[in-house]
Design a protein that fits this description.
With 335 residues, this protein is an alpha/beta fold. It folds into two domains: 14-247, 2-enoyl-CoA Hydratase, Chain A, domain 1, CATH 3.90.226; 251-284, no CATH class. It contains 14 helices and nine strands. Strand 2 (51-56), helix 4 and strand 3 form a beta-alpha-beta unit. Helix 2 crosses helix 4. The relative contact order is 0.10.
Amino acid sequence: MTIVPLALPDGQSRRCRSIPSRVRIVRSIASPFAMNDQHQEFFALSHEHGVAHLQLNRPERMNTMTPAFFPALRDAVRALSDGGETRAMVISSTGKHFSAGMSLDVFAGSDLALAATTARERLSFQESLRKLIDCFSALDEARFPIVCAIQGGCIGGALDLATACDIRLCSADAFFTVQEISIGMAADLGVLQRLPKIVPQGIAREMAYTGERVGAERALAIGLVNAVLAEADALRERALALAQTIASKSPLAVAGTKLALNHARDHSTASALEQMTLLQSAIFDRGEMARRRSRRGKPSAVPTSTHLRRSPRCSRRDSRARLTACGDRQCRAGQ
C-alpha cells in the first residue's frame, strides 16, 4: 500500500518540494493553467478553489480520441495529483456529444502494433495496449475524486473513460454504448472490467454483447449515473457544485476514503478491512479533525442543485414541467 503526500497548510506538497522537475510541471498547470499545444488540441484545463475542470474541446470532431490524446490526459491528471492542490475534478465536454470514442482513423492506419503477426510484434502490441489502459487508470488512481459530466453520446472509448471516474452525471439527451462490439472487436480500455462493478452483471453483459444504446433514464435506473440534468449547462453547474462540495471536505479524509473504496471494490471484504486498519493507522490525524470541527457552523458557498428527471424512488412530479426535482438518486422533493 502506498500513501501519497497530501497538501501542506501552505498548499504545497512534500513531493513538490523534494522533486524540482515535478514542481515545474505542476506550476505550469496551476493557475492560470497554461498548457502546451498538445494538451490544448484536445482539452482546456482550469482550476478554481481546489476544483480542476478538464473540458474536451474538439466538438467539430465529436471529441474523438487520437493516440496523442491518451498520454495528454494521463499526464494532466497525474500532474494535478502530484501537485497536491487539487481536491476534486470535473471532466466535461463541448458540442453535441461528450465523445465518440477513439477515432476510426486509428484502426484504418498501418500502425505495426495493430497489424501484429509475429511473436515480437504481438508482444509490442501488448505493451502498447498496457500504456493506453494506464492512461485511463490514471483517473481511477488519482488521489482526488473525479466527476464526469456527460452530454449526448458517450461512445466506445468515452465509456471506458467515464467508468474510470468516481461519479457520473448526464444530461437528458445522453446515451451510452459499448461501440467496440459493433465494429468487430472487444472493448479493451477498461469498460469490461469496470462496468460490471457499477451496474448489475447482467446489464453490463447485455451492453457489452449487443452495443445497444442506454439512454439517460435507464442509465439513472441502473446506477450508471447519479443524476440526469435537463441540459448541458445545468449538467456542468451540477457537476462543479458537487466537486466543490467534495473539495470543501478534508483532502486527507477524501483521499483515504477513495483508497479504501477502490480497494474494497477490487478485493474481498476481509482483505479490505485489513487494508483499512493499515490505512487508518497512516492517515488518522487529530489535528485535521480539530480543524474541521472548528469550521462547523460556517455557511457553505456551494449551491444546492437538483436534476429534472424521475428517480426510481420518486413519485412526486412538478405540475408544470411534469418532471421530478430530485437529488442524486434519493428523492428530496418532500424536503
